[in-house]
């Protein structure tokens, strides 16, 4: 996907999310009294903003994150410093998540500033160049303000769901007293809840686009970044599958709690790893080439609609296009 197409798709998706939100919200406010709706809306906004502000502390607790001091790994800090300069952003705080799954994520809030976390599993399993490309991807998220953008759009489905839920309950239990239109309000509430799922699909699509965009950023600031990131994603997917098979269900659930932050979705890794596991190739580069030659199945395309991350074959192909276009 070319840069201008990717940028246009993201702008169009954002416009669709906010446009549909405004249209539906305005239509319902014309139909019913708006004070109760505004009250619910304000509460949902407050809860989501509070979650955003406090999320770094939640993430830290779930993934056992601690600050990685410069003295602990000066080479890694130097890498982040150089990539931050190339990205033209302030160097984020470097964190280490003490979990075996190989992954990385960018996060933060005004209370903590920007942070980039890499897992112990990433450092243990990826080559140095692959780690560099993964860091370039995460810095791309910070440069594009993906944390703020996704926070802004992600609360909208919650807003409409809870407003719909409130209207539905009001219509069911209050319609026989003061509100003679309770049945209609209940139907509108159900419509709101359905609409929240539509917004969720748009939000997931936007999340996938921003993964592509961050991949492109890594390719632009890391030497041979597209190739390194491709190999890194193969390693992450294969290693995650092995680790997940040894993990208990509760640990796997915890690792997926904030899966939208990760460079690769832990929930997809088992299915994605099969594309490499069934390969007869004995080395990573050959397995990558075999995967690129495959076509996403109808099932792959369907599952991708409900995923925060792109299908692995499509994502690797997009990176392959970048590696063949030095000026990208």
Q: If helices are DSSP runs of H or I spanning 4 or more residues, what is the number of helices?
A: 13
Give the amount of beta strand, in percent.
5-15%
Instruction: Tell me the distance between the termini.
Output: 11 Å
* Contiguous uncertain segments of 5+ residues: none
The major sheet is characterized as: 4 strands, mixed
Number of strands: 4
Helix content: over 70%
Overall residue-averaged pLDDT value: 80
Trace the largest sheet across and list its strands: 1-2-4-3
**Tertiary shape:** globular
Along the chain, the helix and strand elements come as: HHEHEEEHHHHHHHHHH
Secondary structure category: alpha+beta
Radius of gyration based on Cα positions: 22 Å
Description of the molecule:
The chain is 71% helix and 6% strand. A 4-stranded mixed beta sheet has the order 1-2-4-3, sandwiched between helices. A hairpin with a 3-residue loop joins strand 3 and strand 4 (113-119). The chain has helices at residues 3-31, 35-62, 74-87, 120-125, 128-143, 146-174, 182-221, 225-246, 249-255, 266-277, 284-292, 298-305, 312-323, and strands at 65-67, 93-97, 104-109, 113-119. It has 13 helices and 4 strands. By secondary structure, the protein is an alpha+beta fold.
């Amino acid at each position: 996907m070319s840069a201008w197409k990717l940028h246009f798709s993201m702008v169009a998706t954002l416009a669709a999310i906010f446009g549909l939100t405004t249209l539906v919200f305005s239509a319902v406010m014309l139909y019913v009294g708006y004070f109760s709706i505004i009250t619910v809306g304000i509460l949902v906004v407050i809860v989501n903003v509070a979650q955003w502000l406090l999320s770094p502390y939640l993430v830290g607790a779930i993934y056992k994150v601690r600050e990685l001091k410069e003295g602990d790994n000066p080479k890694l800090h130097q890498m982040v410093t150089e990539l931050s300069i190339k990205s033209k952003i302030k160097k984020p705080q470097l964190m280490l998540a003490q979990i075996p799954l190989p992954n990385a994520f960018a996060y933060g809030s005004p209370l903590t500033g920007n942070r980039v976390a890499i897992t112990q599993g990433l450092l243990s399993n990826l080559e140095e160049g692959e780690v560099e490309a993964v860091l370039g991807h995460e810095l791309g998220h910070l440069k594009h303000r993906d944390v703020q953008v996704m926070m802004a759009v992600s609360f909208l489905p919650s807003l409409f769901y809870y407003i719909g839920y409130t209207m539905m309950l009001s219509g069911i239990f209050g319609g026989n007293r003061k509100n003679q239109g309770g049945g209609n309000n209940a139907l509108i509430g159900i419509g709101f809840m359905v609409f929240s799922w539509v917004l969720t699909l748009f939000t997931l699509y936007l999340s996938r686009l921003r993964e592509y965009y961050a991949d492109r950023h890594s390719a632009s600031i890391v030497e041979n970044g597209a190739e390194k990131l491709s190999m890194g994603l193969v390693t992450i997917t294969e290693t995650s599958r092995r680790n997940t098979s040894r993990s208990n269900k509760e640990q796997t659930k915890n690792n997926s709690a904030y899966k939208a932050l990760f460079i690769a979705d832990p929930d997809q890794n088992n299915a994605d790893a099969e594309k490499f596991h069934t390969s007869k190739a004995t080395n990573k580069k050959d397995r990558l080439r075999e995967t690129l030659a495959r076509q996403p199945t109808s099932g792959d395309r369907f599952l991708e609609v409900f995923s925060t991350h792109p299908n692995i074959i499509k994502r690797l192909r997009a990176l392959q296009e970048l590696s063949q276009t030095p000026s990208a």
